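Practice problem: predict the structure.
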Amino acid sequence: MTAVRDPVAGAVGAAFGEARSAVTQASVVRRPGLWERVSRAARVTVVSASAGSGKTVLLRSWIKEADLTGSAGWVAVGRDERDPQRFWLSVLGALRKTSAGSVLLRPLTAAPDLDGWAITERLLTDLADLAQRLWLVIDDLHELRSVEAQRQLELLMLRAPQELRFVLATRHDVRLGLHRLRLEGELTEIRGVDLRFTVAEARELLSGAGMQLADPVVELLVDRTEGWAAGLRLAALSLAGHPDPGRFAAEFSGSQRTVAEYLLAEVLDRQPEEVRRLLLRTSILERVNGELADLISQGNGAERVLQDLEEANAFVVSLDASRTWFRYHHLFAGLLQLELRRTEPDAVVGLHELASRWLSEHGFLVEATRHAQAAQDWELAAGLLAGHWSGLHLGGQTATLHALLAGFPARLRTADAELAAVAAVDELAHGSIEIAQHYVAVAEGLAVTVPTARRRQAQVLVGMARLLLAGRSGDQRARAEEARQLLSVADAPHGGEPGVVEEIQALALLEIGDAETWTGRIDQAEPHLEQAIALARRIERPYLEFMGLTYRAEIELNRQIRRAEELSKQAFDLAGQHGWTDDLFAGFASMTLGSALAWQGHLDEAEDWVRRAERIFRAEANPASAMGGYFVRGQLELARGHFADALAAFRVAERLAGPHPLARPLQAWLVYVLVGLGETEQVEDSLAGLPDRVRDRGEMRIAEAVLRIAQADPHAATKALAPVLSGSARVGWRSWLAEAFFLEAIARDLLGDPVAASRTLERALDIAERDGVLMWFLLHPSPFLLEREAGRLIAHGALIAKILSLLTANEPARRDRPPLLLEPLSRSEIRVLRYLPTHLSAPEIAGELSVSTSTVKTHMRNLYAKLGVHRRAEAIERARALGLLAPSPGPR
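Answer:
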């Protein structure tokens, strides 16, 4: 193909050569006033004007003039950009190319569900120590269609350090809450009227292009174009070879669209046929390089032409430092496409097909799929999406996949097995589990219609959809079975890409391992998870490793709480390196870490992590995850003594439970909270209505003991606990034995058997010390028993001191809640209560009240039960906390 060269070097086509010279000179017109405004601007500068107003040229020339190449990161927003992840990765990449950014900013890798909020917070963290001026220039901001990404950009601008300055170029104002910056004097605005070329600047542009025009002609051009930069550049392009500049200026329209269309025809008519063909045919592409342009235009030498066009700075913009990839100005591309459809309407579909196949062969799968869709070659498009879906999904491009899926007619989602499977997973990420179930059923029904060559690929897709659906619903047995089936399909030889096969193998092993964890087969779960993590590291898939660490932490939550905390933090370290801190699996890790901290008694620290999980989980798409989040929330609130909040969380968890493994222990936790609320009759009725096999489970016997102690019936409590302590009634979690022994100690103490109480308390502390689980002592607070035994149980002195400290630290949270009694006190009980702070014995109180000693003792037992305590001193302290007695006159 004939290249467009400088006239001095021997141009091919004098008109085009002169045009190139004209526009190249136009790009260096000095505009010191505008450059100064940008340089002296405060935090944010907005350059808002219509297409072709010279925004990009102004900012590029300002960077060059001010020598800011190493201090300014440049981001060009892609056309109709709806993917927050892609936008923020480009922002990070641009800033990392600056001198300051290369030092401060950590690299980031794409991942599923990668959240722009996480990237924003990461940028704020990394740039906190920014000491030198750094500029972030975002061009074509109007193309950012994601409201979420706009909100994230607003947050970054409001919270960024003072040394980070923003320059936003846009065709129209974007809603970014800039009014606050405007009121604070932190916003500089450059509008279309500011960008209009003056007569002097237009004269400089034309003169620099070698066109000495009379002042009236220049003034007429400025008047016709209203100083529109693109119009003047296009005018210069056509005037280079026009025989009558005066007539040209007189006929020139002031409408931007009219100007562009008129000059487009003028430019195209004056170009060699090879260049004209190149411009028209490659206009269908979002970006183009020389090889692709040669293929589409059926020529050669396209790279040199594109470079010359880019140097002209009117139509073409380079996308990389080596100037091999280019895009056309959006307005110019749109008009070229119109002209292509007018002149070669029958060629458009074929051009899209050519582009799709070239892009696919060169690994540009997303663009290849879009061109196949533009050609309405739905079979090709579906094949591209299905063939590379798993790699894209596990690479974090879920938003892009969502947009690609939207490019198919709705009817195809229920007519193609592979598309239906992709749609199912898309619904799990962006929609609802019910619709996902529908698509899975459709995919299963259509699987037999898939051609033999693609049948195994379809099996993998449908298998992944079923697997993820089972995981979201909480059916762990189905999840494990689906994962094993997927693993067998992936392991079978079928000529697939090795990397993709290994990704699927790692994913299947992870899902098997976690399902085995939740069904209690820990010994089988560990080898599967370790194998998956090793495979993920070998194939360099850090996201799969992140999943594995998260699942390993869940295992240790049932064994070694401190190890669960350690693994969760390792997972978050890895997430922080790659920007996954708001990913779905970060939600799992947050929930595990929050639970681990709560079980160790660190309730305030646990709160932060539980909130993270709650922000990530969506019940409609991930009921199993949301159920786990509400379950942990209920435990945390119960440990604080917030019974109403705990009940609300447990009720939501109960509604979402389905086949979730936590549904079983949830029954016991509901007993705890209802007892705390004084609903003992309701609990009694519920326990009576349970089948014997359920009521005799270890955790339910422990729950019954909690009820009996609250009812001041320690004999019944010890009877309920006996099978648990003997081992005949098994518990699902070893730490429950610590609770059982602790409740036994409380019951024995109430029965007046301090020796048995001390012995069983020691057993409880042995288990708690080994496992690091202290929440039981917060759920059933008995500080007086612990204080009394501290002197005897010397080996556990430090642990007892820690538990007492946690009880003291948690007491303000309990006092912040409205006073709670398990049930109202009678008048007689209140009269007895008034005498408890005295040193009078029960017979002496009976004498004061003129009642029998047995009546006083009955009232005291009722008081203890209603106050939720076991001894007289505890009753006095609890009554004071509830405001039923006057505060103590001094320290104890």
